[in-house]
Write a structure and sequence with these properties.
697 residues; alpha+beta; Beta-galactosidase, Chain A, domain 5; TIM Barrel; Immunoglobulin-like; ten-stranded antiparallel β-sheet; eight-stranded parallel β-sheet; 42 strands
Amino acid sequence: MRPLAQVGDVALESDEEQRLWRLRSPAYALTFGIVGRGQVALLSWQNPFTQTQWLKAPVPLFGFATTLNGVPAISLQPSNDAGAFALEKVGHETGAKQLTMRFQLRHERSGVVAVVSLRALDGVPALETGFTLQNEGNEAVTISGLCPLLLTLHCVAPLTVLTLTGGHYDEKFPPSGFTLSEHVLRDGTAVQIDCGSAGRSSQKDIAWFALGRKGNEATVEGFVGGLAWSGRWRGLLQRSGGTVTVRMEATEITHRLFPSATLSSPSAFLMPFVGDWDEAGWQWHRSLLSVCCPLSPPDFPWVQFNPWFGWTTRIDAATLRREADIAADLGCEVFVVDAGWYDGCGTDDFGHGLGNWVEHKGKFPDGLRALSDYVHRKGMKFGLWVEPERVDLETPLAKQHPDWLARRDGKVIGGGRYGHLCFGNPQVVAWFKERLAKIVADYEVDWLKWDYNIAYGLGCDDATHGHQDGDGTYAHTQGVYAVKAFLREKFPHLVLEGCASGGHRIDFGILRFVHTYWLSDFTHRAANVRFHLMGAWFALPPCYLNTWVVHEGTTVADFRSRMGGAFGISARLCEWDEGTRERAKRAIAEYKRLRPFVLKRRFLLKPQPRSPHSWTVWQFYDPETDGGALLAFREQSPDERLTVRLKGLNPDARYQLHNADTGETKTLAGIHLLRDGFSLTIPEQGGSTLWWLQRET
């Protein structure tokens, strides 16, 4: 084949005579070609590491599926009266460390042109897919559903599927939130995942999956994928004989595509991997951070103080200044004022006043900027909570702009005195761009927490808003993205935190704009928090796993249980005694030392527990320095000792292990730690132990 382009380790080649194209990197080798009536197909998918060939016959492009006038459409389909998509041309473009293929397809009957994009990055095993539709015909075409991931594989070996639930709030153990489930995909079986009926993207499941082939009882290779969409969606993984299909799509979208108009799908990410599930998670994190996520500031994630669980809406300038004094002394790096700071919100429901978005003069007689300046003088960043998509119907904003409210069948979406604003309305988007920018500038905000405590259901069908009656969820989601993108561009320094009643809108679409995400409003029980962290880590990089220590538990183990991602404190600091404050100060110093390792590799040396009688053991490891830490917890286990085999170490090296609690130091060979293991002791139930790991020079 003739070379067409190369960016780092990604290369594109073609054979014009045979009409073949090959995209290859160290992680994959894909061959595309023309079959049948000029339709484009994926002919070969090979893993260069294992030489596994995942295809035995041509299959459709894995980045394109939709429905035109009620008829399903993909890049490779049998002849029918409705017509099919034929290839017009293949193009490519290169940019900074990336190479993008574009397949232009034209529908035989309707005149709709689909441009399917496949983006590859140097040094990254993941691929990003998506497509744009343009109507070059003379009549409107109804588009239903946008599916940027339709993967077909041929495999006779058993395959295992991992799925992950969203940020559910419940008191039980094990919790239902962030539960990692394993399914064996047998002939005739299917695994379905979706957002749930409420409409927030992770109310039920995370739009993520991992698919693996096992060898000698351990997963050795497979695929990880996810949908970059913050609206309604569903996924289906199924097997029929030796054929496996994976479909991830945005749903509840019915859009009339008029002549000359365009419509773009969400993106999806697909990553082949080699290794076990921990290796898949590590490769997935690296891919997301390269392909999707915004760059984080230095020393991120910052140690947070947020008064919410201590004070709720009962805040004022004097109280928060007192708390800021203590938070700064403890070593906190950002002070985030949560709900209750705005005009109209007293000491009851934090929803009162939503839409006013100016400070409450009774609580802050000198203005909120005075508190921001005070926090900055203490050496901390200043953060602020907002909830743009929900409005108090008794505020001037709601009364002056009733046409901005999202409606379904003529009724306002929401409940009680609260309504859902429609960000599918360009006027709403423009207003919030201006208002949020003013908040950030006037109050000198370094960290903006965007919450979302209202369900959208099937979405707005009020076509007077500027969207159509069948695509309200699509338009609203794009409007939210537009405001977040505006803030990111206007304030490059600004850290955005995501939240939706906890973790009810965590997805790879929102990750493009935020730096961290509040995992769950059930943050009170340490064992549940650790469970959440262990499951969510498989889909989300550690900086997005935001959890806090609250007033219900302040033991050493309680603090350490929040160290698996972003770490914070939310309590009445002024009511803590000296002993508690000292524990907090030591814990924050400990976290800051642990933070660089948390952001690197993590190995689960014990699986996500299904009983409080199990130990939890995390190994954090930096491959570059060959150092890290072991962090273990004994909840209600009757055993005070446990031996675990470490991972990732150099068998020929020697390592020094130092106990952070007792000062004990041991030096052991890498081969011993890998083969024979390391013995951990926690004398008391509910306790923890932390060992620092350093390679001897």
